[in-house]
Amino acid sequence: MKYKILGEFPLSGTVQISGARNSALKILAGAIVSDGFLELFNVPRVGDVFLFIELLKSLGVSAEFKSNGCLEINSSGLNSFELPAFSKNIKSSILFVGPLLARFGKAILPQNSKYSFDMNFKVLKSLGVSIAEKGSVFEFECSSLRAAEINFLSSTHTGTDNAILSSVLAEGSSVITNAAAEPEVDDLISALNKMGAKIKRADQNPRTILVEGVRNLGKLEHTIIPDRNEPVFYASCALFTNGSIVIKNLNTNHLTSFISKLSFMGANYEIISPSEMRIWADPENLFKPSNIEVKPYPGFMADWQPFISVLLTKAAGESVVTDMVLNRFEFAKELNRMGAKIEFLDSGIKVFGPTKLKGVITEAEEAISVAALVVAGLGAKGKTEIRNAEIINSELENTKEKLQNLGAVIKEKA
């Protein structure tokens, strides 16, 4: 399966942003620590969420979308502490281990050599968990989780989530220092507190999280916060196609570092309200070059840099994009094949503009890189073919429909 994009059609119209995938996944994992009934609204219908729902069902938990869009979850039927074999392909399945230990005192996680869980294992060991590698699985055991002081040497989103989920039912008070500050972490804290947890950020240092363990957690009604990646993706699509769109159901307070870059580059936007913005391009004006450095929240988000890199091919001059994780720049090789002039640096890329992209046959390994190529293809001259449809089907199928509603020409081919 592959998709073909016919470029140079300006996008126009209105698009609704989905709930945050990263919030939904961790709250779904947290459903296991509750012995009550959960009602979740604004849950994004994307590949990873559906996989997590299937994972919950394999453990005996019921989970079903209702006609009003609510995802109803009941963990009273939880009957297994062994994560299914397919979970080995989902790196974030590590988030289920702490909740399973809290319920059973045991957990089994399939191994995948592609993923390293060293940081997460350190968190679990500090809480009194023993970890054994047996055959193709990891076995975790702890008769009673105990509170701990957990310090991260560098900010880690998943590590912070794991520390919270694993300590919420631990005996005593845990302290998590150098914790991640992302809005999705706060959404997890909010959901757990509604269920009866006692979690807060320290008044003097918001990167310190205090968790007072409780005996059990109850029911929940919660609305997932808006996604932070989607609005930047659609804004980039509009700007790269010389279009004009209105983006709704977002949280502009979570996008300040991106919006400030738009201002610096000379892009046109209007904040209509905290949950709505308009963005449009003037084909007569080139963007100003800009230097981008990926940093933890509230800095520039790692998932945004492929989109801004595409936009910078239309900037009049040299721009530098830096990120300590270099494999996030694989998409740039494909952009060069499309006519971009991008030079690889020790810690990022240098983008020379302006250049005009042309459609080619492209391929990428990760969904975020595929999404960047979608942005490029929408503004490129001619047809762009994107392969690896299994990635697109699992992560971008919803996005394809929204783009088509905005006037994009995208065709699915066998």
Automatic annotation (TrEMBL):
Main location: cytoplasm
GO terms, molecular function: UDP-N-acetylglucosamine 1-carboxyvinyltransferase activity
Record keyword Coiled coil present: yes
One GO biological process term: cell wall organization
Keyword Coiled coil: yes
Coiled coil location: 386-413
Pfam families tied to this protein: EPSP_synthase
Key words, A-Z: Cell cycle, Cell division, Cell shape, Cell wall biogenesis/degradation, Coiled coil, Cytoplasm, Peptidoglycan synthesis, Transferase
GO CC list: cytoplasm
Membership in a protein family: Belongs to the EPSP synthase family. MurA subfamily.
Protein name as catalogued: UDP-N-acetylglucosamine 1-carboxyvinyltransferase
Organism: candidate division WWE3 bacterium CG23_combo_of_CG06-09_8_20_14_all_40_14
